[in-house]
Amino acid sequence: MLCQFCKKREATIHFTNVINNQVEKIHSCPLCAEERGFDYLKKSNFEKDHFLAGLMNLSGKPEKVTSAPDCCPNCGLTFHAFRQTGRLGCSNCYEVFNRQLLPLLRSVHGNTRHLGKVPRKLSPRVNRKRRVGELKNELKRAVKEENYERAAELRDEINALQNSSPPPEEE
User: Fold this and answer.
1) Most buried residue among 28, 48, 59, 71 by CB atoms closer than 10 A?
2) Which ranges constitute the DSSP H helices of 70-147?
3) Measuring CA to CA, which residue among 63, 64, 81 is closest to residue 72?
4) 7 pLDDT exceeds 60?
5) Tell me: the pLDDT tens digits for 111-157?
6) Residue 5, number of CB atoms within 10 A of its CB
7) Which among 18, 35, 13 has a CA at the least distance from the CA of 111?
8) What's the rounded Cα separation, in Å, for the pair 123 and 92?
């Protein structure tokens, strides 16, 4: 494949950008990539953690200071250290730094939960689990708003979903 900029040299750098479900693909040779300012992609195995760390402050605006733990009690990682490396220390870090991670995940992926394909035989279970989660969130809102009739309906719907037998697995 030829470089889409110079149309002379072979494209060895391929970059895909997805914004609002619009896919933009860039195919460039190393020289054109350097000229256009994305020469860091020339490295065949550029460090994903540095790339992720760089995405954390795309806006150039100062960060909002939120009250959050200074470090993970399980592994001792600080959020500042995560920002430097782009790597979390353990699975507990996801919970500890949840407030700071959610906006990052939203900006990188467009959402904070997986919306992609699910294996066919797991799809009914996954859909039911998602629906129960949505209903539980709606139940919390109804209770907070003191809409107890709606809360009772939601509670019954959640119980019905949780107590129904799992759909048979397809082989």
Assistant:
1) 28
2) 79-85, 92-96, 98-109, 123-144
3) 81
4) yes
5) 777 667 767 777 788 788 888 989 999 999 999 999 999 999 999 99
6) 17
7) 18
8) 27
Element (H, E) at 144: helix 123-144
Residue 3, token pair as written in the block: 């470089």
Structure token pair of residue 95: 């919970």
SS3 110: coil
Three-class SS state of 38 = coil
Q: List the domain boundaries for the chain.
A: 13-46, 52-59+67-109, 123-163
CB atoms within 10 A of CB 140: 12
Report pTM: 0.36
User: Are the CB atoms for 56 and 70 separated by under 8 Å?
Assistant: no
Distance CA 101, CA 95 (A): 9
Amino acid at 145: E
Q: Which amino acid is at 80?
A: H
Q: Is residue 30 within 8 Å of 3, Cβ to Cβ?
A: no
Alpha-carbon span 79 to 71, nearest angstrom: 7
What are 101's two structure tokens?
Answer: 């991670």
Average pLDDT, the chain: 77
Give residue-wise pLDDT tens across range 64-90: 544 555 788 989 988 888 888 888 888
Q: Please provide the size of the chain in residues.
A: 171
